[in-house]
Amino acid sequence: MCGRFSQSMTREDYLALLADESERGIPYDPEPIGRFNVVPSTKVLLLSERDEQLLLDSVLWGYAPGWRGKPPLINARSETAATSRMLKPLWQHGCAICFADGWFEWKKEGDKKQPYFIYRADGQPIFMAAISSIPFERGDKAEGFLIVTAASDKGLVDIHERQPLVLSPEAAREWIRKDVGEKETAEIAASGSVPADKFIWHAVTRAVGNIKNQSPTLIKSVNN
Prior knowledge:
By secondary structure, the protein is mainly beta. 12% of the residues lie in helices and 33% in strands. The protein has 4 helices and 13 strands. The model has no long low-confidence stretch (mean pLDDT 87).
């Protein structure tokens, strides 16, 4: 994880849990984002803080500076990103939040893989920690972001051994503060994550495996 997620609500649905309107440099938009099948290598709305205001940028999901010579990464391990040659600058200066309704994982069942949609039991949006080349300038001009992952806990490990680092709204705000330090970022990652018992999941249609599909049915339980 994380290789696919849903970002379908309105901007306001996500932002209302994070800040008052006066703290945002983001135009009001009542239209649902409507992306039920967000895939890597596409541009995604990413939240960061600049000049003490929250801002949304459309940023490519995936990151690879030119010198790497390999396909872009889409995830960054919370345990190693801070010391990685490639990711350390992003961890230090590019903390961001990718908001979502939930994410998808595939579990092998028999000779097939069954997709599951994982989301908060209380129906609230989730705030996934991310690191990004936005908002600071990179000398190599590489653009993109990665979703930070952590080891799964309790029941979630039955679906996949890794999961996105999902932060509480309060921890999400701390994560994107401009002056947050490397040590403090690690502390937020360790203490601000939403516990596994706050999540539930259900099986969904295998149609989600086709990146062209975009429909509310993709996040509905196939057992209903």
